[in-house]
C-alpha cells in the first residue's frame, strides 16, 4: 500500500499552496464581510487551471484525475474555504456533463466553465424536497418541440452569482425515473433569484431560484429523458470526497495556527503547549483530520481506478465535516478571547464548516447509503 503522493502531485500541492497563501488567504475574511467574492477570484482560479481540472484537454481543461482534484480542493480551502466552491462546482458539473452529455453539448458547455466565463450551479434541492430529491416537483412542461421550466430550487450554492445551471426537473411520472437534467443559462427574464442570509459562507451567494417558464430545447437536455436523477447521484459519490477534503483543508489550517500559538503564547511563565489541556486536544484533532484525509484519498483513488467507492466517499462525507467542525471549535477555544474576535478567522471557519455538515447530504443520509451497502437494502433503514 502506498500512503505518500508521487513527486508530480507533491509539486502540484506545493505550487498550489504558494498560490493560495499569496492570492486567496488575504481575501478570505474581507469577502465574507462584503458578502460576495471579489470579481477577479474566478479568473485567478481559471488561470491556475482550477476550474478546468476535470475537463479533457480538447475542451481546454487539465484532464486531472480525481485524487489531484481532491488535493486542489483541500489546498484552496486551506486558504479560502469559499473559493474552493468554485473548484468543487466546476468539477462536479463537468463530470456530469462528460458522463452524460453528447459531443456537441460538451464542446458548447464545458469550455466556458473551464475559462470561468460561466460559473455553474447545481439545482437539485427544493423547498419540500432536500434529502428526498427523487421526488422533486419542479416541472419541465412540454412547449412545442421543447419545454418550459416551472418551479423553485433552493439552497443553491452560487444561486445569486451563477451564470448557468444544471437543473433537474420532472418530465415524467413520479419517482427518480421521471427526472431529467437540463443545462441552462439563467435568463433573468424567466429566473428570479433570492439571496439567503446564512450563518456562514457569505461569499458563495447561496439562494433560491424561481423558474417562471424558462424555455429549454432538446439541445439542452443532458442524457436521456428520465435519466437526470441517476446521473447526479453517480456524481455525488465523487463530490462527497471532495467536500470532505475541503473541510479537512480548512480545519487543518486552523489547527496548524493553534499549534504555532501554543508554542509562542505564554501563561504562568511557560508556553501554553506545555499544558496537557492545550496540547492533547490538538493531538486528538490532528489525528482525526489525518485519518479523515486518508479515507477521502482512498475514495478518490478507488474512483480513479474504476473500483467501488460509494462506502468510502459517504463515510468521508459524514465524518470529515464533523471532525473539522470540532477541530475548528477547539482551535477557537485554544486562542481564547482572540479566537472569539472577528479580527481573526477562527469564528468564520467554524461558521463556514458547519454548512457542509448539511450541504450535499446530511450525515444521516451518508450513513444511510453506507448502511445499505453494508447490510443490503432489505436489512437496512
Question: Can you give me a brief rundown of this structure?
Answer:
The protein is α+β, with helices and mostly antiparallel strands.
Q: What oligomeric arrangement do these chains adopt?
A: single chain
Q: Would you state the CATH class of the largest domain? A: Mainly Alpha
- β-strand percent reads 5-15%
The CATH topology of the largest domain: Butyryl-CoA Dehydrogenase, subunit A, domain 3
> How many beta-strand runs?
10
**What percent of residues adopt helix (DSSP H or I)?**
40-55%
Mean pLDDT, all residues: 95
Q: Would you identify the regions where 5 or more consecutive residues have pLDDT less than 50?
A: none
Strand arrangement across the biggest beta sheet: 1-4-5-8
Estimate nothing, just give the exact number of structural domains.
3
Largest sheet: 4 strands, mixed
The number of helical segments is 12
Distance from first to last alpha carbon = 34 Å
Instruction: Summarize the helix and strand pattern as letters.
Output: HHHHHHEEEEEEEEHEEHHHHH
Radius of gyration: 21 Å
Give the SSE map.
Blueprint: H1 7-24, H2 28-34, H3 41-47, H4 66-79, H5 84-100, H6 103-114, E1 120-123, E2 139-143, E3 146-156, E4 164-170, E5 179-185, E6 191-195, E7 207-216, E8 221-222, H7 228-264, E9 266-267, E10 270-271, H8 276-304, H9 310-335, H10 337-340, H11 346-355, H12 363-375
Features:
381 residues, alpha+beta, Butyryl-Coa Dehydrogenase, subunit A, domain 1, Butyryl-CoA Dehydrogenase, subunit A, domain 2, four-stranded mixed β-sheet, 12 helices, globular
Amino acid at each position: 500500500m502506498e500512503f505518500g503522493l508521487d513527486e508530480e502531485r507533491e509539486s502540484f500541492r506545493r505550487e498550489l499552496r504558494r498560490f493560495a497563501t499569496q492570492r486567496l488567504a488575504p481575501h478570505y475574511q474581507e469577502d465574507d464581510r462584503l458578502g460576495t467574492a471579489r470579481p477577479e477570484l474566478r479568473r485567478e482560479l481559471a488561470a491556475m487551471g482550477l476550474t478546468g481540472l476535470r475537463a479533457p484537454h480538447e475542451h481546454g481543461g487539465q484532464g486531472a484525475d480525481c485524487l489531484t482534484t481532491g488535493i486542489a480542493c483541500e489546498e484552496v480551502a486551506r486558504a479560502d474555504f469559499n473559493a474552493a466552491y468554485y473548484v468543487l462546482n466546476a468539477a462536479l458539473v463537468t463530470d456530469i456533463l462528460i458522463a452524460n452529455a453528447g459531443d456537441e453539448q460538451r464542446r458548447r458547455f464545458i469550455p466556458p466553465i473551464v475559462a470561468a466565463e460561466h460559473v455553474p450551479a447545481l439545482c437539485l434541492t427544493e423547498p419540500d424536497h432536500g434529502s428526498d430529491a427523487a421526488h422533486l416537483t419542479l416541472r419541465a412542461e412540454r412547449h412545442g418541440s421543447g419545454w418550459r421550466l416551472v418551479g423553485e430550487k433552493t439552497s443553491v450554492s452560487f444561486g445569486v452569482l451563477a451564470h448557468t445551471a444544471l437543473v433537474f426537473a420532472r418530465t415524467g411520472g413520479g419517482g427518480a425515473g421521471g427526472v431529467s437534467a437540463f443545462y441552462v443559462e439563467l435568463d433573468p427574464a424567466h429566473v428570479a433569484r433570492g439571496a439567503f442570509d446564512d450563518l456562514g459562507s457569505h461569499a458563495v451567494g447561496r439562494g433560491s431560484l424561481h423558474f417562471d417558464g424558462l424555455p429549454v430545447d432538446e439541445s439542452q437536455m443532458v442524457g436521456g429523458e428520465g435519466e437526470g436523477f441517476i446521473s447526479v447521484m453517480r456524481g455525488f459519490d465523487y463530490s462527497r470526497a471532495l467536500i470532505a477534503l475541503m473541510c479537512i483543508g480548512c480545519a487543518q489550517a486552523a489547527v496548524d495556527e493553534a499549534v504555532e500559538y501554543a508554542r509562542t503564547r505564554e501563561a504562568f511563565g511557560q508556553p501554553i503547549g506545555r499544558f496537557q489541556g492545550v496540547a492533547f486536544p490538538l493531538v486528538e484533532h490532528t489525528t482525526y483530520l489525518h485519518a479523515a484525509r486518508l479515507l477521502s484519498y482512498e475514495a478518490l483513488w478507488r474512483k480513479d481506478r474504476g473500483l467501488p467507492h460509494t462506502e468510502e466517499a459517504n463515510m468521508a462525507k459524514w465524518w470529515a465535516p464533523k471532525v473539522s467542525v470540532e477541530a475548528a471549535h477547539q482551535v477557537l477555544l485554544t486562542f481564547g478571547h482572540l479566537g472569539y474576535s472577528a479580527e481573526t478567522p477562527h469564528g468564520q471557519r467554524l461558521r463556514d464548516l458547519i454548512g457542509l455538515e448539511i450541504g450535499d447530504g446530511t450525515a444521516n443520509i451518508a450513513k444511510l447509503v453506507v448502511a445499505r451497502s453494508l447490510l443490503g437494502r432489505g436489512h437496512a433503514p
